[in-house]
Amino acid sequence: MEYVTGEKERECVFCKGPKEKKDERNLIIYQGKYAFVVMNRFPYNTGHLMVVPKRHRLDIDELNDKEFQELFYLMKVSTQVLKRRLFPHGFNIGINIGKAGGAGKEHLHLHIVPRWVGDTNFMPAIGETRIVPEYLSETYQKLHSGFEDLLGREKGRTGGQKK
User: Does domain 11-118+130-148 have CATH number 3.30.428.10?
Assistant: First the structure.
């Protein structure tokens, strides 16, 4: 409800966040050279991540090769970190492009939603409520350290930078 009824920011949240240098407050887990990984502040499930190009783009066709490669490389790394830290049984991964495609934000991004067998019950359907069993700050720490563990060794590979 906070998201639905709250005041909307005028500036693109995906453009603003990486520039602020307040990664933990903005739930940015990892920043590469061309893309970054951020936790969804209003997750569908624990560990719901988004991978976002740093340049404001509306469509995949607008990405250059380096942006495209890093976007999908970070998607792969994100699933690896989630597997090692949260132990999901599977994932929903998607990109909503354009309003007709379900995009709520005009800045291109992809969603990675960890899934567990039995993680959906009557609450979303009947109670219009999602159950997230862990505070965002706790999940942030687990996943941030997972990215450091995995990409700290590979820092030069994507041009990424630690927090």
Answer: yes
